[in-house]
Amino acid sequence: MTTQISADSLHRLVKHAIDSGTAASVEEAKALFQGYRLAVEIDHATASDPVQQAALLTTVALGLRVFLGGVSVGGPLDTPLSPAMPFGRTVADAVKALGGTSGAIADGTPTIVIGGAARERRKGFCIRTATAGWRGGILPIHSELRPTGGTSMPLAGMLAAGLAVNEAFLYASGGSSAVGRRPVGLSLWRPGSDVDWLQSDGSEPALTYLPSRLWLIGLGHLGQAYLWGLGLLPYKDPSEVKLVLQDVDVITESTTSTSILTDVTMVGQKKTRVTATWAEQRGFTTSLQERLFAADFKRQPDEPAVALCGVDNGLGRRALDQVGFDLIVEAGLGRGYRDFRTMRLHVLPGRRPAAEIWKQNGKTEKVEDRPAYAKLMADGVLDRCGMTLLAGKAIGAPFVGCIAATLALSEVLRLLHGGPMHQLIDVDLLSLDHRVVLQHQNDFSRCNPGFAMVAS
What we know:
Layout: H1 14-19, H2 26-34, E1 38-41, H3 50-66, E2 71-74, H4 91-98, E3 101-102, E4 111-113, E5 126-132, E6 135-140, H5 154-172, E7 184-187, E8 209-211, E9 213-217, H6 221-232, E10 242-246, H7 255-258, H8 271-281, E11 285-289, E12 306-309, H9 314-318, E13 327-333, E14 342-348, H10 354-357, H11 371-378, H12 384-392, H13 398-416, E15 422-428, E16 436-439, E17 451-453
Parallel strand pairs: 1-2, 1-4, 2-3, 4-5, 9-10, 9-12, 10-11, 12-13
Antiparallel strand pairs: 5-6, 6-7, 8-17, 13-14, 14-15, 15-16
């Protein structure tokens, strides 16, 4: 029996095994990922901490889209759920709602431990997440290192989870010998490479103000990661949050492999409707724009003045500073098997207009000569046109969008807390210490994204 495959059905990270030549067929690539399993642990010392729960939930949600053999969670999961996410009353409810399993963890399974102090060294891959203030990262399980400083904020937990799942996937897919043996992290308050995320930072403010009026452009990989991050934030009154959700697409099978709020039961539904339902369950208020984003409309004065952009095409990006937003945070992700772990964020308006930044759509890697594509054509599964469409689809990893979303949301949070904005943030998760961060020259102090208070 031949495999039925299309550009909208193939898992976007399974595609990495095809495009890189690791797998010679779609069946082989799928089998490879079905063999990937992940274990997640949390203990009594951290189980009730809201930020550690945020890290746990994010780790499970991301892990299930990468480790297709399943994610097992161990620890005191009967603990009441602290983040006001629509997943039930306890951590166990949330793990089940997300698709994870609870109970015994098989020996040798790559493991992510959520928070806490150093533990005994283990065989195989085992790391722990670590957070303090606006900083998040990962450490080897036995490392005595630990970030110092203020009370962690939820996006630090989300960041740590994204970095942890990235590291676990590097290990599972045959990364370097350094994987799982080094500290990796950054500060969301001062994301520059000159800042040591393990050191206390007296400039970090306590999280006090949260954005209340946002326009989300694109509701796939990045747009849903933005919503997930907003959902983790501790709003005193979530009904104060007014969101405009804009997209024209429906959910496909491939959407579920990168987009953190979707599952296979939603295939065929509008992204706007699915994300609005989730946001409203979280207590937010939404309105929908089911039209392509372009320069042929103007934002009205009573609509959100701050936009988070997650579209992946140059035409939409070129229109970002033409419709009347006071502030736009845009994130773009790498598309190919070599660069899918990269991200570049822009804050607009900037020194150059959007039309100049995105003069052309980005180049794509040519992968049509890979064995898996040749086999699909030889077996009659795809014709030349279908093969070209499939080969041209982007590779995507949900942990990349997760990390990009923490950086993007932090630009808005930093504005609310009087911190500096950044013109450009350029990151490659394979070399996080070599990131490029350029401070913005514009004064955004008069920009008002609306604000709500943090729950006490």
